[in-house]
Design a protein that fits this description.
This protein has about 170 residues and is mostly beta strands. Helix content is about 0%, strand content about 45%. The two termini are about 30 Å apart.
Length: about 170
């Protein structure tokens, strides 16, 4: 299967966003990514490496090559749930329903509660970070579920959201 990065118009007038697609032939022509990349034409410079246990160390996201000032796009529809500093790091989080995307270092003019659409420019890369240091954007995705004794957080590989997929229906 061959991969390509396509420039596509966004919901915002005059803006362009990037999405990963598979070059499909014949019956595979319906392949498409579910989410968009949060920065244009990224190279992955550090892969997802989840910890064996939630409290252990690990890399709970991916690092995408990016520079301070690069535009930050909403990978999917959602609501800005946090914008500010966490432990001295500049962070923006977007709630997509049952999933939350977190970006670091990033900042936005949007405030918590601001609705965003897939492909909207929601901010830019930059700010305080002890992780990326002006050369990358860390993108984490997590699922938070309520349980009897509180909440359970599961970290997911963000690349699974931008990889093209074809959805097919099976007969009963």
């Amino acid at each position: 299967m061959n991969w390509a990065l396509l420039r596509v118009p966004s919901a915002s007038a005059g803006e362009e966003v990037f999405t990963a697609v598979t070059l499909c032939a014949g019956r595979q022509a319906a392949c498409r990514a579910v989410w968009l990349w949060p920065v244009g034409q990224p190279a992955v410079i550090a892969d997802f490496d989840p910890p064996d246990r939630p409290w252990l160390s690990g890399h709970r996201g991916v690092d995408l090559q990016a520079s301070d000032g690069d535009e930050l796009y909403a990978p999917a529809d959602g609501i800005i749930s946090f914008a500010g500093s966490v432990g001295g790091k500049s962070v923006v989080s977007v709630n997509h329903g049952d999933l939350v995307s977190t970006f670091e270092p990033a900042h936005t003019e949007g405030v918590a509660g601001t609705a965003v659409r897939r492909g909207d420019v929601i901010g830019e890369v930059g700010g305080a970070s002890d992780h990326c240091d002006g050369r990358c954007l860390h993108w984490g995705v997590r699922r938070v579920r309520l349980q009897n004794e509180g909440t359970a957080t599961t970290y997911l590989d963000p690349l699974a959201r931008v990889r093209p997929m074809r959805i097919g229906l099976k007969p009963d």
